[in-house]
Design brief:
Length: 282
Amino acid sequence: MSTAQTLEVPGYQVVQYVGSGARSSIWQIRDRQTGESLSLKRVIRRHSSDSRFLLQAENEFFVGSQLDHPAIRKVVRIRRIKRWLTLKEIHLFMEFCPGQTIQENRPSDIRQVMDIFVAVAEAVAFMNSRGFVHADMKPNNIIVGQDGKVKIIDLGQSCPVGTLKERIQGTPDFIAPEQVHRRPLDSRTDVYNFGATLYWTLTGNAIPTVLPKQRSMHFKSDMHVIPPERFNSQVTPSLSKLVTDCVEMQPSQRPESMSAVAARLSLIAHTTSRKLNKVDQP
């Protein structure tokens, strides 16, 4: 495993190695002058085929630097490192967001789940209103801090609304059909990714997407989604219906926007919380 001594960042103290992803590593760093903690994503080009990972880092900076929302991790600045006039490395300086992803710590209390996902829905709706699709919503891209604050991370696959991608991008088990078939992406793509993520959080099971982890294409006859209320007794019929609406195969059959999803989920959360509070009262 990497150690702090393997990385030097001018003007910053490297506090600790946090984790790694595709051709990237994440570090906690501290500004030597202000004492502010940041996260640093280090992306290295080791082979010519790694250029796409540098492009994703550039894209994350392009999108993230235009967004200012409390539930979206802020992207502060970018540092490009060249050797012999060739870009070899990128450092992304980002807001430090301590906590655990819901992949690491799946919440079990229905009220907590809905609080988290209302915050996520509102943040993604904000992204969409600024002309961007997140395009990779999944449990590993939602961090919940000890104080309950929610942060959406990883904007590397985000893109302007209407983008037709050159290749399939997304995460198996959460990817929308239009991403697999390389059709233009819009807010309803985020609706699907969001619904698949909420389904997994409520049930512990992945929905049958067109491109599952086994990477074998599913046909329409294999795509039946069992309502989440069948797996989790805390899930109300209205919440179950919202989730299954979000993961409809055809974008036209899903809720029209993340704003609409956020509004429905907020109402369900409010109603559910009132009922549960009455039950909790002596």
